[in-house]
Amino acid sequence: MLRYILGRIAGLAFVLFAVSVITFTLMRSVPGGPFDLGEQPVSASTQRALEEKYGLGGPIWEQYLRYMGNALQGDFGVPFQAPNLTVTELIMDAWPVTVAIGIPTILVAYIFGTILGVIAAVKQNSVLDYVVSFFATLGLVVPSFVIAIWLILIFSVQLKWLPAGGWTGDFGRPQEYILPVIAYSLTPTALVARYTRASLVETLRADYVRTARAKGLAERFVLLRHAGRNALIPCVTVLLPEIPNILTGSIFIEAAFRIPGLGRFFVTSTFTRDYPMIMALVLLIATLWGITYLLTDILYTFLDPRIRFGN
Amino acid sequence: MEPTSPQSLSSAAAMPTALRTETRTRSNFAMASRRFAKHKLAVGGLVLIVAMAIAGFGAPLLAPSGINDASILDSNKQPDREYWFGTDTIGRDYLTRIMYGVRTSFTVAFAAVAVACLIGVPLGLISGLRGGFIDFVIQRMTEIVTAFPGILFAIFLLTIRGSGQENVILVIGLTSWITLCRLTRAQVLTLREQEYVTAARALGATERSIAVKHMLPNALAPLIVAITLAIPTAIFAEAGLSFLGIGINEPTPSLGKMVGDSAQFIQINWHLGLFPSLAIAAAMLGFTFVGDGLRDALDPRSN
């Protein structure tokens, strides 16, 4: 087990290394740089001084090693779009907002997804089942920003119950959470509901469930104690890999509801060739992605002891 | 189902007419079509996307006005008898814009999926057939592309190469070949062990002809399903990039851009947001239903 985990961590480190090298070389190999401002040309010596200051001098591998050396010590440099801050400060300013939307989204997705999936499975092939399946397909297929527009049209334009977007203060007001969380959680809710239904339907046909019923156990007991435990395994493995995505935010949701989260930096950083910021964002997302995948696989073996490592 | 051989034909000829029609051999295609036709949602989806395709690609003939015709006096009109979907902020007929938007959306999606196929399928074939070091390299490559945030890569390429239809196609193609590559490889790995492949090899067929003549046709059913389901994803990608303002540019109409632009006027001009968002949802649902129907029809064992 330990050997397997160490191997996986080594694989993860390799992928992260490759991602960082590719990002770094891609960024530097394209025409245009952060200091070629068309309107205010700077002299060659100023340009050199700027490059020196931001660690852009010397051959590319040297720049890479310098950046990664600092990054591994937690220093991701200075963002070109806000030179009075550090990259870490800039991310730490925006990330809490994204996480504040992300955590309720995960909770809603998990709780409602499971409940809807269980209802659909227990009432299999009923009208209720079809309604749940229809909404699950809608949630999986229709893009979140389209849902966002519909929610705005219904709840803020027509009914005038909720604001159409915006964010007050550091953590917003409660009514500013409702529409973004609904729009954002629809896809993961649909995902969980669909997998819960499929898995529970399968489990309810298993021999041990029939045995439990034959013993005369109450249906509620059969569902919760016998079928539920096994049926919920896919939920864990399906939703877990979504968590890093949700926690790093949706650029679409943040654009649709004007939420000042991490999302906007994806666009602004590439437009301004903000190398340190791009690197930090890519590393952040790739690391979170890798760790969650590893955790999912490990958690899987705890939930289902039949699965062994290394096979 | 019985194979069509001279023997079965002659025995069928000897039978009474009523029996003969029942035992008539059906081609794979006919059987698949019958299974597809039973799938109501899939047929509905097919009707929907055919209608949208006619409206979109037939827009030069069918649309009520020209693609860029604007009459500024009629700007921001709510839907009425003259303008069924209203007009936009500079007075262009919104129904016309949406029809052309559907055309853009379908064109980009088909072309992008074609790019994804051209990259993913050959890589998957090579990876599965060759195995060993080449397989290892291609597999690590797909892992790296998966770890790389796709949206960032897309924005990045578009800022370098500039936005516009061709570049959007390229970017979406370059970020969506992974699934097709993995699927082709998995298919090859299964088919490689089949007896008819061994037989072909024993008869001295070259690796190339085994791959193209024997394996590809048998791997086709799941690939067609995956390709159909890649189309809504590509539609979403185009709409999303344009929504953010980095995809298709004015004056080319894009449904995603229309939704994005509508946000600032949505309090007054609700129709600007509603109609393009409905069109995106309809296109994506249509292709998804068709894809699900095709899966049931072509690959009855899966599911």
Overview of this protein structure:
The complex is a heterodimer of chains A (311) and B (303). Chain A has 311 residues and is mostly helical. Chain A has 14 helices and no strands. In chain A, helix 4 packs antiparallel against helix 5, helix 4 (87-122) crosses helix 7 (174-204) and helix 5 packs across helix 7. The radius of gyration of chain A is 24 Å and the shape is flat. Chain B has 303 residues and is mainly α. Helices cover 73% and strands 0% of the residues of chain B. Chain B is built from 14 helices and no strands. In chain B, helix 10 packs antiparallel against helix 12. Chain B starts with 5 loop residues before the first helix and ends in a 5-residue tail after the last helix. Residues 1-16 of chain B have low confidence and may be disordered. At the A-B interface, helix 1, helix 5, helix 6, helix 12 and helix 13 of A face helix 7, helix 8, helix 12, helix 13 and helix 14 of B.
List strands and helices in order, with pairings.
The complex is a heterodimer of chains A (311) and B (303).
Chain A lengths: L1 H28 L14 H10 L6 H13 L14 H36 L4 H15 L2 H15 L15 H31 L2 H8 L4 H13 L1 H7 L2 H6 L3 H6 L6 H9 L3 H29 L8
Helix pairs in contact in A: 1-14, 4-5, 4-7, 5-7, 6-7, 7-9, 7-10, 8-9, 13-14
Chain B lengths: L5 H9 L2 H6 L5 H11 L1 H18 L1 H4 L31 H37 L1 H16 L2 H12 L3 H11 L2 H14 L3 H8 L4 H37 L11 H8 L7 H29 L5
Helix pairs in contact in B: 3-14, 4-6, 4-14, 6-7, 6-9, 6-10, 6-12, 6-14, 8-9, 9-12, 10-12, 11-12, 12-13, 12-14, 13-14
Chain-averaged pLDDT of chain A: 80
* Low-confidence sequence ranges of chain A: none
Note the gap between the termini of chain B: 21 Å
Instruction: Using the CA coordinates, give the radius of gyration of chain B.
Output: 24 Å
Shape of chain B: elongated
Cα radius of gyration of chain A in angstroms: 24 Å
What structural class is derived from the secondary structure elements of chain A? mainly alpha
C-alpha end-to-end distance of chain A: 12 Å
Shape of chain A: flat
Q: Count the E strands of chain B.
A: 0
Number of strands of chain A: 0
